[in-house]
Amino acid sequence: MRPPTHILVVNGVKVRRPVFVISAPHSGADLVARAIKRTPGFHITMGRAAVTRVVYAFARRPSIAGSGGAPAVLRDAFAEAWQVRPGACAECPPACREAGGIIGSGPCVNAASLTRFGDATPDLIYSAQVLLKAFPDARLIQVIRDGRDVAADMLADPACLAWFKPHMLSEDAEFPNPFLGLRSAEHRDRWARMPSAGKAALRWRGAVRLSATLRRELPPDRLLTLRYEDMIAAPDTAVDAISRFLEAEVSAIALYGAPAPRPGSWRSRLSAADAGLVEKVAREELTRLGYL
């Protein structure tokens, strides 16, 4: 049976071809979301509590994400997150409000001109397969970045470091565990002893493997892959690709002046030991993607 063209209605608008921006942590999904978020007619959320709770539940428990009810749970979360009402932006994290250029409580979009929805919640990549079931006509944009630069940013982010504490890998943890980058329980003790740089490399490696799977499974009209380094070097070219993919006029202005670390900054931010460990753990993926 052909899937329906829309699943739900938000603020009187049928949700068609929603856009989801996914990546490993600190890989540039926020930059893409920033450009789309400031495009008339689009409502892109980032890190709303209703979505974040579901995303991390699915990431830590892949069996939940694989259940028959997972798509409905995710749709309900987005139905709540996408509501446009007075004060709605006050519920968003600072990164989302900044990306939309919002001062105060919003809302960040004009409900009367709303036509498309989307989301770029951190770690949404671990829910990619559920997204495709929840929204059969979804468009995915994934961003790839040098794993060494990613590791440098993760090591400077307390929220990322919190996931590396030993108790995060409990005795009832499920394997394989893409969220932490582990394939089996046999690696549990090694992971617990590993420096944070190695755990960051594992997280990046697990995410880019999911990205590679999506590239194999989805046609070009459903998935667009961008490199962070190319976006920084040529914002106009990247935005042109996004515009063609979404069939919308996305402006590159939002990318100019956006806070974004320069490619290769890992050389001054990672110690020699940490850089060597990241390259050792993720050598296969760094090589395949042309970073080594």
Automatic annotation (TrEMBL):
SUPFAM superfamilies, per database record: P-loop containing nucleoside triphosphate hydrolases
One Pfam family, short name: Sulfotransfer_3
InterPro entries per UniProt: P-loop_NTPase (IPR027417)
Protein name as catalogued: Sulfotransferase
